[in-house]
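Quick one, tokens below:
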């Protein structure tokens, strides 16, 4: 485990969520297997997350192009690790999160990516179960059928650096209206599996469900991402690997 854990890069795109970022970085500092590096990507914050990142030993880079697709891609490009993991600023990984990632890649050298669900600690148990069914399980179920394999979930996944190198020129990093995780899922190489691990969990914020219009826009972006990639497939630009 030591050999791989010393080469895990965790990428966190952020825009103005410094309080949440602080909580995420604190959780990463408590990992039983610490990552090699943490790359925080400032995507147009009005305040500076650099000071927060620095307090926790993270590296902060700036991506001026708007949107999570651009910010995530910039972080992946900057990562130095053999494994590139991804969290959002509101992600709170369990203390064994990095260890589970490392174990998965050590157990299967052909593994392309591993992903897991988000949980909603701020919601009541009953509401958490409802959201898990209509949002989290629906995401993995619906888009697994669309893509033909497990999609990665942007708040909680890790991929090999080699997988990113193969996908990086095909993704729609300049389109802020696509879901970057779903878009990436279309382009990850087919040389090995993308695995879903229900035990690889992170706590995430329930704020997307507080604003119905914002939640509907999130759903619209999902279907738009599928449309964009299917259009490219028909034009021969996207070919399954």
């Amino acid at each position: 485990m030591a050999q791989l854990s010393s080469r895990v890069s965790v990428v966190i795109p952020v825009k103005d969520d410094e309080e949440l970022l602080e909580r995420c970085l604190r959780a990463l500092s408590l990992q039983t297997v610490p990552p090699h590096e943490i790359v925080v990507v400032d995507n147009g914050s009005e305040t500076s997350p650099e000071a927060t990142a620095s307090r926790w030993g993270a590296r902060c880079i700036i991506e001026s192009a708007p949107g999570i697709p651009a910010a995530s891609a910039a972080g992946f490009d900057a990562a130095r690790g053999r494994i590139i993991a991804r969290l959002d600023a509101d992600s709170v990984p369990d203390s064994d999160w990095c260890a589970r990632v490392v174990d998965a890649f050590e157990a299967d050298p052909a593994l392309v990516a591993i992903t897991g669900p988000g949980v909603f600690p701020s919601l009541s148990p009953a509401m958490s179960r409802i959201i898990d069914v209509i949002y989290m399980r629906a995401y993995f179920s619906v888009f697994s059928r669309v893509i033909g394999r497990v999609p990665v979930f942007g708040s909680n996944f890790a991929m090999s650096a080699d997988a990113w190198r193969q996908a990086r020129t095909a993704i729609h990093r300049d389109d802020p209206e696509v879901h970057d995780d779903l878009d990436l899922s279309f382009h990850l190489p087919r040389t090995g599996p993308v695995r879903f691990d229900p035990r690889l969990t992170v706590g995430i914020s329930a704020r997307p469900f507080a604003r119905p219009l914002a939640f509907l826009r999130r759903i619209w972006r999902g279907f738009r991402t599928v449309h964009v990639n299917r259009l490219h497939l028909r034009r021969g630009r996207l070919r399954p690997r």
